[in-house]
Fold:
Amino acid sequence: MTLGILGAGQLGRMLALAGHPLGVACTFLDPAADACAGAVGRLIPRDYGDPEGQRLLLAGAEAVTFEFENVPVEAVRTLGERVAVYPGPRSLECGQDRLTEKTLFRELGIPTPAFRAVDSRAGLARAAAEVGLPAVVKTRRFGYDGKGQAVLRSPADLDPAWAALGRAPLILEAFVPFDREVSALAVRGRAGELACYPLAENRHRDGILRTSVARPGDGAEARAREYVRRLAEALGHVGVLALELFQVGGELWANEYAPRVHNSGHWTIEGAETSQFENHLRAVLGLPLGATGPVGHAAMVNFIGAVPPAARVLALPGVHVHDYGKAPRAGRKVGHATVRAPTPEARAEALAALEALAEGSWGGPQVL
Ligand code: AMP
Structure:
């Protein structure tokens, strides 16, 4: 069985690795000829909208999915006329614009921080006055890992933020003094069946995810699951869907969703009965979904900039390395490690050692 995938980054790579035991081969369409999924599947190095690239992607493909949320919606629509494409264009399109995304959350009764659309310098001042400071101003489209955003703490921050971001349509959001960030990961099959993973608790720095810890049975889990279920059903989503939330006291406020496998779900490779990657494949290919329950006490640490030596990482008990085979570069996600431990205490110990390695305690290149 062959699956076509738009995008060939590490998410595509991990989808292909999960596909092998299922007899699923992945073909990738990605403009980057050195994209890291090319090591584990056939890579077509062409633009997403390129007709010849699309023709090659479709040859023998049972279905098509995407691993990158900024692929052009048009490409998904065109491919969808010839083959089953999951998730569908609605999941992709709505999530590409932070304004439509937050408006949908509202419509579904999923709380969000206060927000306003901003299209001019005067509009920025008006939005800041209405929402209040501190606030976060973000580009509506093409932002990721904290890029394309600025925090406004005082009126003096408006001019520099406008100069940096004002060429694109913006959204201004209230700054959320969150206690923690969590994400709800669900997988929905073609017939509408839904399975949810345990809640993940996430720590970011400089807008980039650093650590995710699986928290099955967490006090916020039931509500987070209810929100992601509402969203998946409203979108008619098929595949994995990740909803990122801020927790403030007893409240959960939605920040954004990703219509794809998600970094905060990488712990599922070793820490859940069926990984998010396998379940995404099962969903988009119309196969029965696998169980999403936890196995042991799991967590994940991202390697940003450089992967520490495997010998150092693997010396920690219960730890597994995932090296994406990407060239080291500051701020780039180049790998991750998961820990699966018999107790929460053992996990905390391995996690602290892993985080120290990820921060460069092994003496490697300081390209974090
Ligand atoms: P995003 O690109 O929207 O996922 O934002 C990246 C990270 O920036 C989030 O995971 C938060 O840590 C932080 N952030 C984004 N929006 C807000 C907000 N409205 N209030 C506080 N922190 C935020």
Summary: The two ends are 39 Å apart (CA to CA). Residues 221-235 form the longest helix (15 residues). Residues 113, 136, 143, 146, 173, 175-176, 181, 204, 207, 255-256 surround adenosine monophosphate (CB under 6 Å).
